[in-house]
Amino acid sequence: MKLDNPNKCPLTAALHIIGGKWKPLIIYSLDKTPKRFGQLDAMIPNISRKVLTTQLEELLAHGIVERRAYPEAPPRVEYSLTKKGKRLIPILNQLCKWGCNVLEEEEILANAN
User: Fold this and answer.
1) If you compute the radius of gyration of the chain from its CA atoms, what whole number of angstroms results?
2) Mean per-residue pLDDT, 64-81
3) Domains of the chain (ranges plus CATH)?
4) Per-residue pLDDT for 65 more than 90?
5) Beta bridge partners of 68
6) Which site from 19, 25, 47, 73 is most exposed, i.e. has the minimal number of CB atoms within 10 Å?
């Protein structure tokens, strides 16, 4: 496949939306049930609250995640995957399997040396 314009590459577009260190982990964390901000913060080690906020905002803007605010006191906000976001789960599962194989292979190579 020849790419005349890398900015119109489907793979580049997908990685722009879900790429990076944190977005796949956020998406994966929302797979089964909605989560509150604090739950996501606790589930994803080493992410700062500022970065989590920014990443959630970007996923919201792309329609991967939705935010639901409940009119309660104190206020409750939950994040969940949209239908578009749920379609990413099988893809992320495959990437996870691939990553496990890569880590295994690299460990075998490291131990052989």
Assistant:
1) 17
2) 94
3) 6-112 (1.10.10.10)
4) yes
5) 78
6) 73
Tracing tokens 């913060």 back to the chain, one arrives at 41
Burial of 79 (0-12, 13-18, 19+ CB in 10 A): buried
- What's the average model confidence in pLDDT over 14-42? 95
Bridge partners (DSSP) listed for residue 79: 35, 67
Cα–Cα distance, 72 to 25 (Å, whole number): 29
> Is the distance from CB of 67 to CB of 60 less than 8 angstroms?
yes
Rounded distance between C-alpha atoms, residue 103 and residue 98, angstroms: 9
Query: What distance, in Å, lies between the first and last C-alpha atoms of the chain?
Result: 38
What is the dihedral sign for C-alpha 45, 49, 52, 56? positive
Could you give the strand order of the β-sheet that contains 35-36, starting from the edge strand earlier in sequence? Answer: 35-36, 76-81, 65-70
**Which residue has better confidence, 106 or 40?**
40
Q: From CA 28, how far away is CA 31, in angstroms rounded?
A: 5
